[in-house]
Amino acid sequence: MTTDEPALPLVAIRGLQKVYIRGEQAVPVLLGLDLDIPRGDFVSLMGPSGSGKSTLLNLIAGIDKPTGGSIVVDGVDIAHLGDADLAAWRAAHVGFIFQFYNLMPVLNAFENIELPLLLTGLSRRDRKDHVEAALEMVGLSDRADHYPNELSGGQQQRVAIARALIADPTLIVADEPTGDLDRHTGGEILDLMEQLNSELGKTIVMVTHDPRAAGRARRMVHLEKGLLVSDADYQAELQASLHAAH
To answer: Beta-strand (E) ranges in the chain?
Structure first.
């Protein structure tokens, strides 16, 4: 007789520490944090400025290296990879969505989305097929030849999301993805992110200051002064608070 073992988390963080050195001063930002993120989860990281949430996001994405502890992503402890190996891992496994889009102004929407595929062995025809599918997914098939300055903020963020998806990453990280958008447009971007999570099963980790944006996630992780102070299923918590109010 066999028993089903629980699935390992996609991201397993243990004893994570990050200390920045400024001159002769050591500035601790993360103080031994533990966190698991299951495959297919949608997690929002919240907390006041200086709480460590953006640092945590950058460490999970392999943009920065920790001072101590481990970050195991899909079986790989990225905390101990060398710079070249970490860069290769990041290119293969992480899709990035930024507050200010980070699109190349001299490239049109199609070319911006295609950029990550230039690092792969895909043929030009296959790259074209992938980009066209991504453009259709984000509702911009008719904007393929438009440059960033010819697109609205919401359209630019959709291009950025398509670029984040194009190489089928293991993990999508989003840093204030609605921070530069009005409420309506931000809601449309969050709708799209929810769709990526629920329909495509993409694992998303998002930093946000906006409680409305955080409410779209499956879980909310709250940091204060480098420590995890709460880790809750946001929707369950919200329903419980609404029930208590009535």
So the answer is: 11-22, 25-37, 42-46, 68-73, 76-77, 94-97, 171-175, 203-207, 219-224, 227-233
